[in-house]
């Protein structure tokens, strides 16, 4: 839900060693200093996991490097990198392997898979989730001599697993089908792959493009003339996947921002229009649609809300403390 930093191997070793040396602390002491998990810090040091941008900035403040040296030794991955990676990785899968798995699964299928008879707010939120983290892929199986239809969600392995398990996967009951999640530690991602034509067609019918999403996504027209709960549902799905809540360090973490990111200009305008329908002063900055301020943050959470456990926990913590700390600085 936020940008990730990947350091070059040689620089990464030098970076962490200099932090420990300059501050005369151990790695465990460093984890307490920047309020992050010890195991997570070890994985960042070895390069196994990418570093969240907020944590990287905290580490950078503890060491002295020339800005040019830092700039040329890291790569920043945008907040929607997981969904992009999911599309690429999914297309790399062997068609024969997929076909064999599908043929095996069909032997045990007992119930006819159904299409939801009508839309409801839970399904609109499901659609918003796919608009954020999802992709649709259509592959021809030479083994089965037919087309296979995949609806795929890709999120962060640590941040999004609980959300996927407890919010997204139960929605499949409307289609009378199931799906499993797959953890890929080498990419720090969790993936849900739904091998079902009816789910695929449902998402496509309501505006989800097949393949790349950039410049193809639009909020369905019927949403703009629907009820506020429907509008809120699709915005929740977007916030919880391609969105983020945060506050700036230079403002003392006191002034919250709600942010939804999209590379599609027209889609950003659709999002901004929906948000403004709730009386919130949404504005665009780069590829982000933002809402700023404490009163607006409360209005968002009261009228639109979030289904993501991390967002809910951070919001409740902000209500208690008056500051919206980075997620690793959360007071439980």
CATH-assigned fold name of the largest domain: Endonuclease I-creI
Assess the beta-strand content as a share of residues. Answer: 15-25%
Please bin the fraction of helical residues: 40-55%
Number of strands: 11
Largest sheet: 4 strands, antiparallel
What's the shape?
globular
What is the alpha-carbon Rg in Å?
Answer: 21 Å
How many distinct helices? 15
Kindly summarize this structure in a few lines:
With 332 residues, the chain is an alpha+beta fold. 45% of the residues lie in helices and 18% in strands.
Describe the structure.
Helix 8 (121-133) runs parallel beside helix 12 (228-242). The protein is of the alpha+beta class and 332 residues long. It has helices at residues 9-23, 27-33, 38-46, 53-60, 67-71, 81-91, 95-106, 121-133, 161-168, 197-205, 221-224, 228-242, 265-276, 294-303, 309-321; strands spanning 4-7, 51-52, 74-77, 134-141, 146-156, 181-184, 189-195, 243-247, 256-261, 283-285, 288-292. It has a 4-stranded antiparallel β-sheet. It has 3 domains: 4-77; 81-213, Endonuclease I-creI; 222-329, Homing endonucleases (Endonuclease I-creI, Roll), CATH 3.10.28. The protein is globular. The model has no long low-confidence stretch (mean pLDDT 85). 45% of the residues lie in helices and 18% in strands.
